[in-house]
Amino acid sequence: MKHLSILSALLLISVVVFAQKQTVSLEDITAKGTFNAKSVRGLRSMVDGVHYTTLEGGKRIVKYQYSTGKKVADVFDLEALKEESDIKTIEGYEFNGSETKILIYTNAEYIYRHSFKADYYVYDIQYKELKPLSEGGKQQIASFSPNGEMVAFVRENDLHLSKLKFGTESAITDDGEFNEIINGMPDWVYEEEFGFNKAYDWSPDSKEIAFIRFDETNVKEFAFPIYEASYPNNEAYSLYPGQYKFKYPKAGQDNSIVSVHVYNIKNRKTKAMDIGKETDIYIPRVRFTHEGGKLGIIKLNRHQNFMELMIANTNSGVCNTVFTDRNERYIGQDVLDNLQFLEDGKHFVYVGEMDGYNHIYLYTMAGRQVRQITKGEWDVTDYLGYNAKTRMFYYQAAAKSPMQREVYAVRNDGKKSLQFSTVAGTNKADFSKGFKYYINYLSNTTTPTLVTLHDSNGKQIRVLEDNKDLKARVEGFEMSPKEFFSFKTSEGVELNGWMVKPLNFDPNKEYPVLMTQYSGPNSQQVLDNWRVGWEQYLAAEGYMVACVDPRGTGARGEEFRKCTYRKLGKYESDDQIEAAKYLGSLAYVDASRIGIWGWSYGGFMTSLCLSKSDVFKVGIAVAPVTNWRYYDSVYTERYMRKPQENPKGYDDNSPINHVDNLSGRLFLIHGTADDNVHFQNVMEYVDRLVQAGKQFDMFAYPNRKHSIYGGNVRNHLYRMKADYLFRNL
C-alpha cells in the first residue's frame, strides 16, 4: 500500500508538471517565430474571376477555384520542370494578360526598403519552357506589357525592353548612372516616402511606356562606413573599412529634378511631357488612363499641400490639369494609390479629406465632382475597387472604431450598402476580378490570421487558413490578455490604449510599467489585431506593458491626424507624458517605476519625453531621430515645411536641443549602416549629452540598417533591452 501511494503521488506530480504551461521566452519572439501566423501568400485573381492562384512553399504556383476553394492545378512547379534549373525558390510572380506566360523572380538582393535586384525568368505555360529574361545581369522591377509580348525592366538605372517573340533586348534609355541619373525607378527618398519602386507604366494598348526620370546630380551625398562584420561578411574590409555613398536629400536641401517621358515602341522615340517649368516639385505617380494616348500624372508642390492631376497627350506632350486638391496643411501620401481611373474611361475615383475625414469621391475625367460616395465621421482606410456591373464601390474603413477595420461596399448613388466583415478586429479583403468572390483576412487580439473565401453576398465558402496549429501552440503558454482602455488628458483629449498586465496579476500590488509606442503621423499601434511581442515576455517577468496612440495618429479624422503640423513631437510627447501620469494613478502601478521605449519615430519620442518630464525612470531609444534637420526632405517637410521656413518648429521639438533637461536613465541603440535615420542622429546627440554632463548608455550595431537584424542581432538586441529594464526599472 505504501509503495502504491508513493507511485500514485509520483504519477500525480508528473501529470501536474506535464500540464504546466510555459511562459513566453525572448527566443520565442526574436528567433523561433513561435507566434507568427501563417497566411495565404502571393494571391492573384485570374482574369476569368473564377480562379485564383497562390504561391506555396516557394516552389509552386497553384490554381484554385473560387466557388469551392479547391485546387485545380499546379500552374508552375519547380520540381516538375523538364530541364534542371538554377532556381531554388520563387520569390514573386506575375502573369501576362492572357495568362499564357508567367514572369517569376528569384535571388533577390534588397537595396533599400522596396527596391531589389533579382534574376527574372519567363515561363511559357503551354510549352512548359523556362527562360531567363536577360543574360546581361540582374534586373529590377520587370513587368509584362498588357498584350504579354514584351517585358520592361530596369538595369543599372536604365530602362530596357525585351521582345519575347523575337528574343531581342534593347535599351530605352542610355544615360543612367549611379548617384546621377535614374530612369523608370525612384531615387531613395521617393522610394522611402512615396512608397513605391516602379516609376514607369505601360499603356493599355502596349504601344507606349511612360517613365519618370530622376536627375539627382545636385542632391548631396551621404556616406557611412562598411566594416567586415558578419551576416554578411565583408572580407574586403577586414583591415580598412569601406564606404557606402548615396544621394539623400535632407530637409531644406536640393531634391532630384524629375521629368516625365513617354517612349513609343513602334518608332523608338521618346518624348518629354510638359509638366511645367517649376522644377522644385514631386511626381510621385504616373499612370495611363483607359483612353489611348492619355497619361495621368500626379504632381505635388514642394510643400505637399497642393496636388494636381494632369492628363498628358502622349503624342504632343501637352499636359492639362483636370483636378486639384489644396490643403492648408498637407496631403497625405496614402492618397496616391487611391486615385484610380475607372474602366469606363469617363471617371476617376479619389479618396480625399474634403469634409475632414478620408472619403471616396467620384469625378468625371474633366475634373467635375459627380458626388461624394462615402460619408460619416470616420475614415476610409483603403479603396478596393469598383464593380461597374452592380455600380458598387468597395473599401476598407474604420467606421466602428479607429481600433478596428471593416470591409464595405456602397452603390454609387449611396442607396445601398453592404458590410462584408462580420467579426470585430482587423479585416482586409482581396476581391476577384468581377467581384463575384473575395478572400477575407481577419485577425484580432485572440485570433491569429484567419483567411476565408466568400461569395459576393458574404457567404463563407471555405476556410483557407485557420492557424489551427498556432492556436493549439498558444494554449500551451501562459499569457496575459491585451486589454483596451481609453482616458482623457488634462486638455480633454480622449486617447486610446492597450495594456498587458503581469502574469498572476494581483490588484493589491504595485507593478513597474514599460510604455511602448511609435506615435508617428497617421500611424497606429493600438489596433485590434494579432500580435504577440515581447510584452508577453515582460509580463512573465512581472512588468506591465502599455501602449497609447497620441494626437497625430490615424483613423480619427483630419484634425486629430494633422494637429501636429509644423511642430512634430510637441503634442505626441505631451500625450505620452499624460499617459504615463494616468497609468501612474492606477492603484496597481508603481508611479516611480515607469519606462518608455520606441523605435525610429518612437525613439525620437522616447528621447524627447525624457527631456520634457521626470515621470519616466528609464527610456530606450532605438534608431531615433534626434534633430529633424538630419532627416529627409519629403517626410520632414510634409509635416514641418523647410527648416528655413519653420526654424522654431524644428528646434523646439528636437531632443538634441533639450539635453540640459534630460532626466531618467537613457539607453541609445543604433545601426551604423542605417540609410534611413542616420547614425549621425545618435552621434551628434551623444556629443551634446556629454557636453551637458549627462550620463547615458549607448550601443551600436556594426553594418546594421534601420531594422537592425541579421544573424543573432535581433535576439541580442531584445536581450540587451530586457536586461537594461531589469537593472534600471
UniProtKB/TrEMBL annotation:
The keyword Protease applies. Residues 99-448 form the Dipeptidylpeptidase IV N-terminal domain. Keywords: Hydrolase, Protease, Signal. Residues 532-728 form the Peptidase S9 prolyl oligopeptidase catalytic domain. The keyword Ligase does not apply. The lineage of its organism: Bacteria, Pseudomonadati, Bacteroidota, Bacteroidia, Marinilabiliales. Residues 1-19 form the signal peptide. This is S9 family peptidase. It holds the Pfam family DPPIV_N. Transmembrane segments: none annotated. PROSITE patterns: PRO_ENDOPEP_SER.
